[in-house]
Amino acid sequence: MSVTATKPAHPYVASLLSSSAAVPQSATAWFNTRRAAALERANALSVPTTRDEEWRFTDLTPLTKVQFQPVSTAAAVTEADIAGYAVPEAAARLTFVDGLYAPALSQLGALPKGVTVELLSEALKTRAALLEPHLAKLANGEQDLFTALNTAHLQHGVVIHAAKNIALKQPIHLLFVATRKGAASYPRCLIVADAGAECSVIEDYVSLGEEIYLTNAVTEVAVAPNASVRHIKLQRESGTAFHISNCAVTLAKDARYLAHAVTFGARLSRNNLTVTQQGEGAHAQMDGIALIGGRQLADTHTLMDHAQPNGTCEQVHKTIVGGGAHAVFNGKVLVREGAQLTNSSQQSRNLLLSDKARVDTKPQLEIFADDVKCAHGATVGQIDAENLFYLLSRGLPEAAARNLLTYAFGAEIIDRIPVPSLVAQLEKNVMARTEGGV
Fold it and tell me: Would 197 disulfide with which of 81, 162, 230, 361, CB 3.0-4.6 Å?
């Protein structure tokens, strides 16, 4: 299907879309239709500004001053270059360099029967019926420019499928490596867990240098009845990069979704997570931490949509903000009419390490049912004076005591990730940054 695109509403959108014409058509008609619709929608949308309520704390002007384009050939990256990001516990690893699949750096391993990890291009040829209900449907980009841009460029992606009643205890590692200045990448991941299935996915964004580039990622997760998905998202981009991600999750009856989001990198990052409870008795756990300094801006928006009864959700989001950095958290819990016996809680806890550091936090509850248990809270402060005094009284130097308390604040979230080697990597990173003043 071809679409005669209207003139883009914003010149920067036109520059980002200029490369989408080079994406080849697929043999799958519905896929081409959705890509074309996304292109048309992207042409109609403008870059969000601080006048938009959902973006009022995040100014995208620095992004619009730089031109980004996808690369056509991958940079020369060796196994030694990415050794520091290895996860020995992983059952498989797929590596992408500047948005392009790198087979020499990937290890599919011996996956159990019923678990498949494959490139989107291959899955469209052999498993189109599996993809059609979910791909570019869970995250459709009707109102979000960056989701629409990702779908318009949709070519390189990963499909992970766990068949009925299959449990894969080892995680699947998706490693996205950035190396080139001015590169734009549009990673796409689709995770489908059939009834009773269980799987874990590590979505890991790293950089081998301090180049300026753009990552615009979209992840879609469909969790069937009694299935469970653990989703670990790590953002360790260059300190000058831009990272924008959207994740859309649907939960069927008695499904479970466990999320761990860790944000360390990028000059400007935005992480959107929407979880929709479509079946009764579903459960979500959403942990998040952002550790930023300098002039970094890290923005996290979450929506827990309880559309059915007996749903539960536990969310804890922490930020550690040093230098002149700015952290944003907007967490919304929506309990729809008829979603009785919902039990949902949300905490936003924020630690400021300097006088110039800034946090804007906005936990929200919207409840349209009368038999529910919901709570939220937010705290913003500096290191606890009593705890600091206790450590000083035990002989620790002040700098060491502050570093230890800061580390403990962040490690509480990281320690919940059930991948020991990954926890060790992240804790080492947290300790190094706290000792360096973040």
Answer: 162
